[in-house]
Amino acid sequence: MKTHKLLFAATLLLAAAPVLAEAEKLGFKGVELGSNLAQIASNPKFDCRVVSTPIADKVCSLRLHEKETIAGAPIDSLFYFYDQTGLTGIVVNLDEKHFQPVITALTEKFGSPNLKTETVKSFKGAAFENRTYRWTKLEGSLQAERYAGRLDKSVIRFTDESAAQRIQQRRALLAKDPRKDL
Q: What is the pLDDT of residue 24?
């Protein structure tokens, strides 16, 4: 009898394991870190171009006059960064007045973040508390910064933390042996 109860409990645990292991992956509107370039490149709302940044060799952005939202708030700009067709980062820029509702929505989706505060000053010397929220997952991190270069702008960044190192290593190998770039 005890063996049957133990077997039953083990079966329930195994059946529940996929649900327990299925944590929310980092991404924006169904486009997750690591996903293929074709997911965005095939969407007519986006324009993709070749770049050379520390985390990407291609970047896709919303076309002129295209609109997008995050947690119901309008987005000023949206960029998807790719390295060899794999998504390495997402940057969402928005007005600071929409920052707190976006943080609430991100916390509901991804759980409690770490919070870092620092004082920033305006050009006139007035002090403001900048808040940076950070969620860390296996595939990368999500960082939301209240004041992003200006007091009226905020930024949300989804980042594959290992991408810059992988890209730097690959570029260094190509620089050493140009024959590998054929």
A: 82
Give every CB contact of residue 112 below 8 A, 6+ residues apart in sequence: none
Give residues with Cβ within 8 angstroms of 33, minimum separation 6. 25, 26, 27, 87, 88, 89, 90, 139, 140, 158, 159, 160
pLDDT for 178 equals 67
- Structural contact between residues 172 and 54, judged by C-beta atoms closer than 8 angstroms: no
Please give the single-letter amino acid code of residue 158: F
Rounded to the nearest angstrom, the gap between the alpha carbon of residue 43 and the centroid of all alpha carbons in its chain is 19
Give the pLDDT confidence score for residue 180 in this predicted structure.
64
Are residues 32 and 26 in contact, defined by beta-carbon separation less than 8 angstroms?
yes
- Taking 70 as the pLDDT cut, the residues of the chain under it are 1-23, 178-182
Q: How far is the C-alpha of 82 from the C-alpha of 41, rounded, in Å?
A: 11
H-type helices in the chain, by residue range?
2-21, 38-41, 99-110, 163-176
End-to-end CA distance of the chain: 67
